């Protein structure tokens, strides 16, 4: 897995823009680059439950799969977010199956299965398996931080500028609004979106910047 970047779950936030939608925030080990992924309510609740942040008495389909896997000696080795197309993240799950041979020896067989990213992460948490992505995806959708504040790789904005309110932040922006904004204003808005934990808006702004 040397060619991949390992991720950790930073948190889950309720979308400020669309009801019933959550943002899963992943980050690299250093915490300098964060990756926001839009997920649905059910998967968000399942991930939160596995992290011990919700009522653990409720059972999800991911819990059933964990029990099934243990009974049949299936181990989840890793989850890999390997592709990003039109704002949609594609992932696969790497499983390992122990197969009995001659009733004594065991042979380990690997299987790779495509999965919805939110489902893959929900399983990874339960199996305590690592989550990886590629450098290419980080370059496309990652949000860079310096000293705890988001920055643009080309035009950095200072902590003082944010605190003094030099940039105007609006939580609700349509696609048409974003298309009319200059790149400098988009970068400023991106900073404020992340600081205010509006990660879905941040992802939309990043997509518009990449389109240009």
What does this structure look like?
36% of the residues lie in helices and 35% in strands. The chain contains eight helices and nine strands. It has helices at 41-50, 61-71, 117-127, 135-141, 159-163, 175-180, 183-195, 199-211, and strands at residues 5-14, 21-28, 33-40, 74-85, 88-101, 105-116, 131-133, 143-146, 149-151. It has a nine-stranded mixed sheet with strand order 6-5-4-7-1-2-3-8-9, with helices on both faces.
CATH H level, superfamily name of the largest domain? Bifunctional nuclease domain
DSSP helical segment count:
8
Low-confidence stretches: 153-171
CATH class of the largest domain: Alpha Beta
Mean pLDDT: 77
For the termini, the CA-CA separation is 32 Å
Percent strand:
25-35%
Task: Give the helices and strands as they follow along the chain.
Answer: EEEHHEEEHEHEEHHHH
Strand order of the largest sheet: 6-5-4-7-1-2-3-8-9
Strand tally is 9
CATH-scheme architecture of the largest domain: Roll
Q: Structural class given helices, strands, pairing?
A: alpha+beta
Tertiary shape: elongated
Task: Give a quick precis of the structure.
The protein is built from eight helices and nine strands.
